[in-house]
Write a structure and sequence with these properties.
With about 160 residues, this protein is an alpha+beta fold. It is built from four helices and four strands, in the order H-H-H-H-E-E-E-E.
Length: about 160
């Protein structure tokens, strides 16, 4: 009977040591994984986010035919280009999907795939295309629209 008691003592000791080891391992694991380093946002990323917000502002202003917002968010040449290209419509639905951002010197080139439906009276006109918005300045403003200008629709 004493041999069985001795084995039980050995088993209890082994179990206590194993539990302590597993507990220590779990505590160390939680401590090492608990502190994640937060990376600072790069200036290029901030500029890209500003470009996305600007194009959304321009899109909404165009749909609502809000020329003052278009003017406030465009350079003089950019505003003239947008207003000169605008056609009359009763209602417009326009979606932008940003596909590429390129930053060169002080300009941001934002490639946007767009799709729109324009209503004039009882006629609907659907168009789609790819535009490159050239944004300049601080804060960013629309300077030019290259390729398929969504503000020139419906053609």
């Amino acid at each position: 009977m004493r041999k069985v008691e001795g084995n039980m003592l050995v088993n209890k000791t082994v179990i206590k040591k194993l539990t302590a080891f597993v507990g220590l391992f779990l505590v160390l694991l939680m401590i090492s994984c608990g502190k994640k380093e937060v990376k600072p946002v790069s200036p290029e990323s901030k500029l890209a986010q500003e470009a996305f917000q600007l194009t959304e502002t321009l899109r909404q202003a165009y749909i609502k035919n809000n020329r003052s917002t278009l003017e406030d968010n465009s350079t003089n040449d950019g505003y003239r280009e947008v207003i000169g290209a605008m056609k009359k419509f009763d209602k417009a639905e326009l979606t932008f999907t940003s596909t590429w951002v390129e930053i060169k010197d002080s300009s941001v080139y934002l490639s946007v795939s767009w799709k729109g439906v324009w209503t004039m009276g009882t006629k609907n006109r659907e168009e789609r295309g790819l535009a490159i918005f050239v944004l300049e300045g601080s804060p960013l403003k629309l300077a030019r629209v290259q390729r398929d200008n969504p503000f020139r629709q419906p053609e």
